[in-house]
């Protein structure tokens, strides 16, 4: 595969200081990857500064798993996009289905967060994806189209990345067929081009949901798949490195 790719790990609420050895190993792999392959991880906020140090001088990109829509203020427990930028982060994930479910985040909120991220100089990885019931009802394309339309910022599309994560595939070991991923990524591409014109063709569309060393190559071979957002298999370099290599 000779296309630009982004392989990003989302550590979710996992990782203590002992996990910094994994960051160091992933950073070495990032440096060994071809220049068209970007490698990134989003550790928990508690590890970000330490991870920044562990990855200093390498090509490993670091990011947050969420940010607030405001740049500062009285929001106990929240992290603002300028704080992530100040720490040397490159990106932030917004609109993950776990936040949409656990924290009631709507497309409108996700759009505000993505805008805040880009204004702060970060890339925004915007997550979308249908539930199993929505796919069973053949509503998946409409659901994701509505999420895309509602979540995309009006800001510079060069800083936008989309992650298509079917909710039913997250942490379950189940993945869509390559043909289903192809259908969805083509539909997302059409939506991006409708919104941003030719700039929409350059936006990376990641696949996420039970990506593993054993299925990464098949998923990456889908033409409009521009990388992966990896959860469980990004926690250990032994699992994550073969996924990077498959890109
Ligand atoms: O953000 C990552 C996704 O939710 C995928 O998680 P998973 O690879 O553990 O299924």
Describe it.
By secondary structure, this protein is α/β, with parallel strands linked by helices. It has one domain: TIM Barrel (Alpha-Beta Barrel), CATH 3.20.20.70. 40% of the residues lie in helices and 16% in strands. It has ten helices and eight strands. An eight-stranded parallel beta barrel has the order 1-2-3-4-5-6-7-8, surrounded by six helices. Strand 7 (205-208), helix 9 (216-220) and strand 8 (227-230) form a beta-alpha-beta unit. Helix 1 runs parallel beside helix 10, helix 5 (107-119) packs across helix 7 and helix 7 (140-151) runs parallel beside helix 8 (178-196). It starts with a strand and ends with a helix. The mean pLDDT is 97. Glyceraldehyde-3-phosphate (G3H) is lined by residues 10, 96, 165, 170-171, 208-211, 229-233. It catalyses: D-glyceraldehyde 3-phosphate = dihydroxyacetone phosphate; L-erythrulose 1-phosphate = D-erythrulose 4-phosphate. It holds the Pfam family TIM. It is found in: Cytoplasm. The active site is at residues 96, 165. Homodimer.
